[in-house]
Amino acid sequence: MSVLWGSALMLMAGIVQSVVLARYMGPSAVNVDLVTVLLASWSLLRGFDEGVLLGAIAGLGMDLMSGGPLGVNFFILSMIGGLVGLGQTRIYRSNVPLLVTVGMASSLLEWVAGLVVLQAVGWPAEVSLFMVTRLLSSAMLSGALMPPAYYLTRWMHGQVSRGGPGDRSR
Q1: pLDDT of 42-92, one tens digit each?
Q2: What torsion do the CA atoms of 51, 53, 59, 63 make, to the nearest 10 degrees?
Q3: 54 in a domain, yes or no?
Q4: If we measure between CA atoms, which residue out of 43, 38, 45 comes closest to residue 8?
Q5: 31 neighbors 77 (Cβ within 8 angstroms)
Q6: pTM for the complete prediction?
Q7: 88 and 45 in contact (C-beta within 8 Å)?
Q8: Number of domains in the chain
Q9: Which of 25, 59, 116, 146 lies at a CB distance of 3.0 to 4.6 Å from 77, suitable for a disulfide?
């Protein structure tokens, strides 16, 4: 059941990121990686298996909404979901500096892997000072968004596992 809710969350975040935020934040603005942040928080909460699965679903959705080669986001977000999910049982997840670090690292990994994969499939992907500045700004924003995203997904998971906000069975 939580996979369905996580999938819905990832697809809604992908639509908001690709359609709404892309329209109102110009091409020179800092990118908000909502999908990556929510995927990292869900993977920390639910582990490797759901991280890879939701990364694949989110990546496929992002591939269908982007103009890039099909499968690039699928591969990258599946990898991020799996890597972050590996830490699910090994770390203390409510540590705020750790959540910020995971958010920043996930965003950096997404950008670097995207550049490598796009260059591997023959697309021009050049690195400039402007791009590095946007990358670091985006990583800092992702780090700042990670703690609220983690607490949101933790609350959402608690609601789903209990049966919803109106469940009085406890």
Answers
A1: 998 888 999 999 999 999 988 888 878 888 899 999 999 999 988 776 666
A2: 180
A3: yes
A4: 38
A5: no
A6: 0.85
A7: yes
A8: 1
A9: 59
Q: How far apart are CA 7 and CA 12, in angstroms?
A: 9
Q: Tell me whether residue 168 is in a domain.
A: no
Domain assignment of residue 107, given as a range: 2-162
| pLDDT at res. 165 | 53
**54-88 burial, b if ≥16 CB within 10 A, otherwise e?**
bbbbbbbbbbebeeeeeebbbbbbbbbbbbbbebb
What is the CB neighbour count within 10 angstroms for residue 47?
Answer: 18
* CATH at residue 127: 1.10.1760
Establish if 167 belongs to a structural domain: no
Residue 169 lies in a domain: no
Token couple for 12? 């809604």
Residue with tokens 């942040």: 37
Q: At what angle do helices 34-46 and 96-120 cross, to 10 degrees?
A: 120
